[in-house]
Specification:
heterodimer; A: alpha/beta; 4 helices; 31% strand; B: 6-stranded antiparallel β-sheet; 21 helices; 28 strands; globular
């Protein structure tokens, strides 16, 4: 899948919400990262990355998330990931201990509120 | 080229000798890449890798013009990825890239500084020297491609010329890819796209023709030579088998000497002397004491320059040019003629060794079939023993989106070089249409439209099937082609009855039917060309019955089956092509996948492995762990692939006493992990599998992994 097909981006007020879909791997991770990062204006409070519809995520995808976390951190913006219970993606995120770096919530509902703290 | 007569580009390239041939093939690779990736991002990535390799540069980047804004936007980069990530924009006319686009000319920047470039990434990355050329489509700049080095380098005119040639192809490819995207929306665009395919082919065909001995191609070379040297006549004479006489094989301005069958003894006359002395000979004043060929005198040639055609130190003939007014050929003229002679000699020698059509034909068939998980594939092509009948049969296996595979078997009705070239066109066009996700019948309809739009129309019969690898279901269409055979697990055969339509290239608006069928586990689908079933004085029915009989009851694996079929049914009168696809009987066969080492292959590879694991009865969680671990190993193999188009890695999987054994073997050398990303990949593999062993050797890297099934909690 191309980066564009794997991605829906919208704004909810001062928070950008990126819904990722399908498989994320070497073929599209970098492009997705650029598209998402480019969609967050400087004055946004933060970003929600919703992984609910992601069926596969490898270390390129992990790298993409760490990279986003760093970029947003540099700009004092917050990143919240949505990873539902039972998601395929949770396995790899647990293995790399992602929750130590990025805040993860179970459901998209209220994720934007979490960003606003 | 120092000559003031501005010789033809072909000759210019010949001047650089073998390097030129290498460059031609590099450029060819760019054209190939252009055809196999219709998505612009993939295409640009692939093209930049090639451009960077060809020019031995450290960075390469493409910026495309945003016409509304009048700015160049970084679209793809190698070694300068930040340029794209930051969405760098350069106004037309300003900075380095802006200057290249505005002037539509190559720009060489020996020393990069903040005063001559605008893009901060170039400075941050420590790029020292830059070479940039415009991407031109119909004379308009659509963007810029540039390469850079981290050490100071003086890019030469030669480098600029090479990048310009590559850029021409890239521009066409980019334009083509854009057109292709547009085509999905507007059917009206279809015609234009076909024209583009043809345009790209005209480049390909030139390079292919270059190595062939066909009379008209030799004649074309002589024409180019005549123009390049500003001469009135040109001729190629070849030595006979005994090495005693020369005969004129091709000529411009001296055609009569072919008709008359002029033969010159070695050692006598002008050409005979060149052979005997093995060196160039210049005759400022031609008269009957110096030449034997009466035609030279009849047409009134005043001056002659000739060189020996040499292959590995042997003289095989003579190449000469002449003028109708006295002319003092210079040393430079001689050097140019010698270089052209070298290329012509190689071409002649090569063509002699192989037979033209045969060479062309085999260069257009897939070098290797792609791996398809859960399926075993094999194919054979046997050219007709009669050279006049070679050419036109082809097969192809296409990896399509959504776990589908396109199976193609075609036969261009005519024979010889023209058929082989037409087959190349059809193959490429079919590939392009198939990737668009259309149904089998729609692909055939568009292909028919494409063939009808060509000037030199060829009729072809084609069997095309689109197989869903997960379910074994396939849709097929038969354009005037004999029916494929489905061979049951018990060896019992049945011919596919549906999807019958006329050959492509016959009717302007032909409708194509398609039919659906399913390949069950253990069954084999056999596609073939008529050479396998048709015999002189034998009804087709008889041939079809005979094929069924030979196949059963134990068809065996595709490779052995194809071998047996061409052995027993191969005909010397016609080409024979066969393609056999066997769906694995459930869960027992080991898996072996050859995967193209590009990121886009990874998804299909995982899907194949996933259905193999499902057939084994592996649990969902452990399957996911294995997919992830193999995905990481494969990503490493892809990241380290570097070089030829067809670089592949091999995935094998087998079940040994309840344990899945997997290997991922590539031909690259893993560099130390860069940053945290790849290192993380290897850590993941170790956490996901019971055992991981990475062996690095000069010829490649092999990752061996094991995981016992049903042994531990995986997943969330």
């Amino acid at each position: 899948m191309s980066a564009e097909e794997s991605l829906d981006i919208r704004s909810e007020g001062d928070v950008v919400v990126a819904e990722l879909k399908g498989e994320i791997d070497l073929a599209n991770a970098k492009a997705i990262g650029s598209l998402v990062a480019g969609a967050v204006p400087n004055d946004a409070t933060g970003l929600v990355v919703d992984l609910s519809e992601v069926t596969y995520l490898d270390s390129s995808g992990v790298h993409l998330i760490f990279d986003l976390a760093q970029r947003l951190g540099d700009r004092q913006q917050r990143l919240v990931l949505v990873v539902p219970e039972g998601s395929r993606v949770r396995r790899v995120l647990d293995l790399v201990n992602l929750e130590a770096v990025v805040q993860v919530v179970r459901s998209a509902d209220g994720a934007t509120a979490t960003v606003r703290g | 080229m120092a000559s003031s007569r501005s010789p033809e580009p072909l000759i210019q390239r010949a001047e650089a000798g073998d390097r030129a041939v290498q460059r031609l093939s590099d450029l060819q690779a760019i054209t190939e890449a252009a055809l196999s990736h219709l998505r612009l991002d993939d295409l640009l990535d692939e093209l930049l890798l090639r451009v960077r390799a060809i020019l031995a540069a450290d960075t390469a980047a493409v910026l495309l013009l945003d016409e509304e804004a009048g700015e160049l936007v970084a679209r793809a980069a190698k070694g300068l990825e930040e340029e794209v990530e930051r969405g760098t924009r350069i106004p037309l006319g300003r900075g380095f890239a802006g200057r290249v686009a505005a002037t539509k000319s190559p720009v060489i920047l020996p020393s990069v500084s903040s005063s001559n470039v605008l893009n901060p990434v170039l400075l941050e990355k420590g790029v020292c020297s830059l070479l940039g050329v415009p991407l031109l489509v119909e004379g308009e700049a659509i963007g810029v491609v540039h390469v850079g080095t981290l050490q100071p380098r003086s890019f030469t005119e030669d480098d600029a010329e090479l990048l310009r040639l590559a850029a021409d192809r890239m521009a066409i490819a980019i334009d083509h890819a854009r057109l292709y995207e547009a085509e999905r929306a507007a059917r009206a665009e279809a015609e234009r796209s076909a024209a583009r395919i043809e345009q790209i082919h005209s480049i390909t065909d030139l390079a292919l023709g270059y190595f062939s001995l066909e009379q008209d191609l030799m004649t074309r070379l002589l024409d180019r030579l005549r123009t390049a040297l500003d001469a009135d006549t040109s001729a190629i004479l070849l030595l006979d088998a005994e090495g005693e006489h020369l005969a004129v094989r091709a000529a411009r301005g001296l055609e009569r000497s072919i008709e008359r069958g002029v033969r010159i003894p070695v050692g006598a006359g002008f050409a005979g002397r060149i052979v005997a002395e093995r060196r160039p000979v210049f005759l400022p004043v031609v008269d009957h004491t110096k030449v034997l060929n009466p035609v030279l005198l009849e047409v009134g040639i005043k001056s002659l320059l000739g060189v020996p055609l040499m292959v590995e130190g042997r003289v095989i003939g003579v190449l000469h040019v002449g003028t109708l007014t006295p002319r003092a050929f210079t040393d430079e003229d001689t050097a140019l003629l010698e270089l052209a002679g070298d290329r012509i000699a190689v071409a002649i020698d090569r063509a002699r060794q192989h037979g033209v059509a045969r060479t062309l034909q085999s260069s257009l068939l897939p070098a290797a079939l792609p791996g398809v998980g859960g399926y075993d594939l094999a194919a054979r092509y046997v050219p007709s023993a009669d050279d006049a009948h070679v050419g036109g049969d082809w097969y192809d296996v296409l990896t399509l989106p959504g776990g589908r595979v396109g199976l193609v078997m075609g036969d261009v009705v005519s024979h010889g070089v023209r058929a082989a070239a037409a087959m190349g066109n059809l193959r490429t066009a079919l590939r392009a249409y198939a990737h668009d996700g259309s149904t089998a019948a729609a692909v055939m309809e568009r292909l028919n439209g494409f063939v009808r739009s060509l000037e030199e129309r060829e009729m072809a019969t084609i069997a095309y099937a689109v197989l869903d690898t997960a379910t074994g279901e396939f849709a097929y269409t038969l354009a005037g082609h004999p029916p494929p055979l489905v061979i049951g697990a018990d060896g019992e055969g049945r011919y596919l009855e549906g999807g019958r339509s006329g050959p492509v290239g016959v009717l302007t608006a032909a409708r194509y039917e398609q039919a659906a069928d399913v390949l069950l586990p253990g069954e084999t689908l056999l596609l073939y060309t008529d050479g396998l079933v048709e015999r002189r004085g034998e009804a087709l029915e008889q041939g079809l019955d005979e094929l069924k009989r030979i196949v059963g009851p134990d068809a065996g694996r595709p490779d052995g089956l194809c071998e047996r079929l061409v052995d027993e049914r191969g005909s010397s009168a016609d080409d024979v092509a066969v393609l056999a696809v066997r769906r694995a009987a459930l869960g027992v066969d080991p898996l072996e996948l050859r995967v193209r080492a590009v990121p886009e292959s990874l998804s299909a590879m995982r899907r194949s492995l996933s259905s193999w694991l499902a057939a084994l009865g592996a649990g969902e969680d452990e399957s996911y762990d294995i997919l992830l671990a193999v995905g990481e190993a494969a990503a490493n193999a892809v990241e380290h692939a570097y070089g030829p188009v067809d670089e592949q890695f091999v995935l094998t999987a087998e079940i040994v006493e309840g344990e899945v054994h997997l290997t991922v073997a590539d031909q690259g050398r893993w560099r130390p992990a860069r940053g945290t990303n790849r290192g993380r990949g290897i850590d993941l593999m170790r956490q996901l599998m019971d055992e991981v062993d990475v062996t690095m050797a000069d010829h490649g890297t092999v990752v061996r992994m094991r995981r016992r099934l049903g042994d531990r909690e995986g997943g969330p």
